[in-house]
Amino acid sequence: MREIAASSVTEAVRELCIEANTRLPQDHLTALHRALADEESPLGREVIERLLENAEVARERCIAFCQDTGYAVFFVELGSEVRITGGELGAVIDEGVRRGYEEGYLRKSIVRSPIDRTNTGDNTPAVVYYEPAPGDILKLTMLVKGAGCDNMSALKMLTPAEGLPAMKRFVVETIERAGPNASPPLTVGIGIGGPFEKAAMLAKRALTRPSGEPNPDPELAVLERELLDEINATGIGPAGYGGTQTALAVHVESFPTHIAAFPVAVNLDCHSHRTASAEL
Amino acid sequence: MSPAPIRLEAPLSKEEIEPLRTGDVVRLNGVIYIARDAAHARMKEAIEAGEPLPLDPEGNIVYYSGPAPARPGRALGPAGPTTASRMDPYSPLLIERGLRGMVGKGVRSEAVIESMREHGCVYFGAVEGTAALLADCVKEAEVIAYEDLGAEAVRRIFVEEFPVVVVNDLYGGDLYREGRERWRR
User: Fold this and answer.
1) Considering CB atoms only, which of A119, A179, A180 is closest to B150?
2) Which of A126, B96, B97, B115 is 20 to 30 Å from B54 by CA-CA measure?
């Protein structure tokens, strides 16, 4: 059994909160630079230039590049041979979020419930998904999820007869409906299969994949490319002002499903795409 | 952004916004107000109760934002625009009372656009996700109401060369619709 002190998890979480919110990941910056080169609309290019300039200023000054510092979402790959000492893992992650959001000058955006809209004051609770893993690994992947784009996400239970064409239509319709509200150029996370909630989980998890890295399944990789082309043909463009770069990447994750089902979930992420991970 | 920006000094008269057209690049200067969801809900309650508003809409501009905390020495923390459509149920109440401009991101409802045309109000887009750069244009900031709302409190801010684009003008123009039509393949 490998023992990991609660305090080191708290510290790792604190650092992830600050890193994710103040430094755009390199793979995402690369994607933005590529979009800048490919964008045909002059106004669209200016928007991307501003985004890159903003990212640089935020990194230099260690400030949030977007004021919506979001939900603190964590995917925790927890090895069966790992034991956390000196604290319960969920509480330990919350403590790291509390410190990170306070010390990093990050906005506290979480309210107690959709009905009681009192701010919790420290951006907790974190949203934590545990993924059992073999061995003694403990890997934390953080996704900072802004609400503007999350609000424009959607899930649909398609029928097997409707199939793939309906799935593609639903993805493009979701992006058309979101328009400028989701803050393009987007990263598009798509989950297909499983029951209802599994599709949504896969869509969210898909957002943590390095930008533009294709799915290892060749068929899904082709689907990702086709969807990216269709999304970029909508003309929505950077900030929705019109252009050819509406999405930077489309990531599809699939899971076995029921003989009667074809669930599809689309989780949108804005151009302030914030992920970071740490292995302890 | 590209052609020479139009410089505006808030507060604004109706005559000053009449020449603006969808797609015009504008730099805002002067005093504007920050308010978003919860503050708008309270302003609606105040109107319904016949109580005074924390800001006089007449001639003024409201910026939909919820700033992050400021580091010491800064007037305001990172402050980009939030999705304006969430304010759609409230905006006509302020537009009817003389509000001259709104700054946010994303599409507005037909009801808001109609109210803008009727009473003389323009909707500007700021580029979301440029919160650090936009905060640099804010030289002074002060919470003037609803302090308990934290990031959602009403703030009076003094801005210099704050970059925006005209999304909806007084003549039915809509940058989002026109931009999408132009670049759709």
Assistant:
1) A119
2) B115
